Structure prediction request, 172 residues.
Amino acid sequence: MIRRARRSDARALSSFAARLFRDTYDSSTEASDLESYIGKNFSAERQEDEIADPSAAVFVAMADDLIIGYAHVVARSGDGRSARLNRIYVDAEWRGSGLASGLLDAVVGEAGQRGATHLELTVFERNSRALAFYKRAGFAAIGSTTFMVGEDPQTDVVMQLDLSKQLNGGSA
Prediction:
C-alpha cells in the first residue's frame, strides 16, 4: 500500500532512509562522509519537516506496518514548471516487484496535479540499477552535477521526464 506519509512516520522513515543510503553507498563512500550526510539529511526531525512541507510530498509504501519504500518530491521548483524528485528508495527485498514504479506513479501524479510540466532528478553515476529504472520510465539524461556526500564530491547524472507525455496516456 502506498500512501502519503504522516508526521508519525518520521522516526521509522529516518531509520529506513539511513539504512538504505548506507547499503547503497557504503562501498563507494568513506564512512565519515556517509555518516555526515546521513546525520544531516535523514534525522527524524528532517523527515518530519519534509513530510510537513507544503511544497513537497512524501509517499511511503507499507507492508505489515513496515516501511518498504518511499519517495520524496518537491512539487514546484523555482522555475514554476519543474518538480524535483529527491528520492525513491525501495527495500532490497522488494526491488523488481513494481514498487518503485508505483512510487514513481504517485510522484508523477502529485507533480502533475501541482502544474509541473517536467520532473527532474539526479542519480549517482555509478548506480546502474537506478539509471536503468529511470531510463525505462522515460527519463532522459540532460547533464551532470556534483553531489556532496559529506566532504566527498560525487558525480550525479541529471535526468528529466516530460510530464505532459506521462499525464496524457504514457506510463512510468
